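Encode chain A's predicted structure.
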Amino acid sequence: MQQDGRLELLPASELDDQELAALFTASYEGYLVPFALDAAAMRFLTDAYDLDRDASVIAVRDGERVGLANLGLRGADAWIGGVGVVPGERRRGTGRALMEAVHEQSRSRGVERVWLEVIAENTGAIALYEALGYGHVRDVEVWSLPGAAGEAAEVDADEAHAWIREHRVEREPWQRDDVSLDKVTEPRGLLVEGAAAVVRVVGGRVSVVQIAGDEEPTRILLEGARSLGDVLSVLNVPVGHPAGKALAALGGKADVRQHEMVLRF
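Encoded structure for chain A:
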């Protein structure tokens, strides 16, 4: 695939983890929430979220790598696991070209729905996605809560997950659905009367992978969960979810709000 004789769109499988991490980092320079990835983090994202390197796309202009779009694949569903363009390449249609390329890859693999999240303040990206046919599904938030002394109500992770499956009332976002949970190494379960969670604890960070329950039991559960590390975080909690209300009651912070959007073929 080629655009105007100079922009090439190539499969991301042509790059190794380190090269792809460097391009990912460069493509998010100056973004609302900039970040830096190394090879290990890129490999984790690829494995945990089923990013398909053959279906994902990088953009190359005049021999220089200038953007990428990561595509996760799970049956009839796909997910945009990051799309970005380096600063000097922006406003040249490269973002649209990348998105159209991964849409083409999705269709060729029988995908019916493509999901993504976009920061609410990123009006330019939202306008692009709407122009491409995406519709707003719901708003989700990224929460953080400082660690504190307490006692976590730990149980076997399978027991906690079984409770969650029976009691959850909303679809899990891509990063926290059952497929993602199955890939978590050393998951830890938490269970109190009326609430349950499965968490991953790495390097002092308690990442809540799944959580369900009413607000007050969830507050009690999280009050204990925060004792497992220096900081507790929950990715993409739907606005209005009891977990968000419980985190707010505990003094947590909603660091980022995103629009969850979907394109249906």
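The chain is about 30% helix and 35% strand.
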